[in-house]
Amino acid sequence: SDSTAIAIAKLLKDTSITSLDLTHNHMTAQGLNDFWKALEGSKISYLSLASNRLRYATDKDCWRGLKKTAIQSLDLRRSKIGDEGISVLAESLADSQLLSVNIGYIHDDL
After folding, report:
1. What angle in degrees, to the nearest 10, is found between the helix axes of 2-11 and 32-39?
2. How far apart are CA 1 and CA 24, in angstroms?
3. Are 98 and 74 in contact, with CB atoms under 8 Å apart?
4. Helix/strand/coil for 34
5. Is the pLDDT of residue 110 over 60?
6. DSSP letter (8 states) at residue 47
7. What gap in Å lies between CA 24 and CA 30, rounded to an integer?
8. Angle CA(87)–CA(78)–CA(30) in degrees, nearest 5?
């Protein structure tokens, strides 16, 4: 859930952990802003949000906080983000640390 992911992210600030896999965690677009804030200051460079409920992550605010993190690789396979969500994400990448994004299957019908 969003609250679980945010709690985990907060715990990672003072650790050396660089990889976080939240696949099938039931995260939603509504929780992304708080999640990015919780990740600020952590060393997480790889993040998997694969198979989450990001269908409505079509607002620029959903992705704006990503650039304040150390994330370099983002996995969004089977996230149901759709074309509009991917477009908004792409627009939000300026000044981010991202080097790679895996979008794989992004639609509901796959």
Report:
1. 10
2. 9
3. yes
4. helix
5. no
6. E
7. 16
8. 65
| Structure-block tokens of residue 22 | 């939240």
Question: Which pair of tokens denotes residue 108?
Answer: 């509901």
pLDDT digits (tens, 9 = 90+) for 30-73: 899 899 999 999 999 999 999 998 887 888 888 889 999 999 99
Token representation of residue 35? 């999640």
Quickly tell me which residue has 């804030």 as its tokens: 37
Contacts of 48 by beta carbon, 8 Å cutoff, 6+ apart: 20, 21, 22, 23, 74, 75
Buried b (16+ CB within 10 A) or exposed e, 10-24: bebeeeeeeebebee
pTM of the full predicted structure?
A: 0.89
Residue (of 41, 45, 7) closest to 27 by Cα position: 7
The neighbour count for residue 34, using CB atoms within 10 Å, is 16
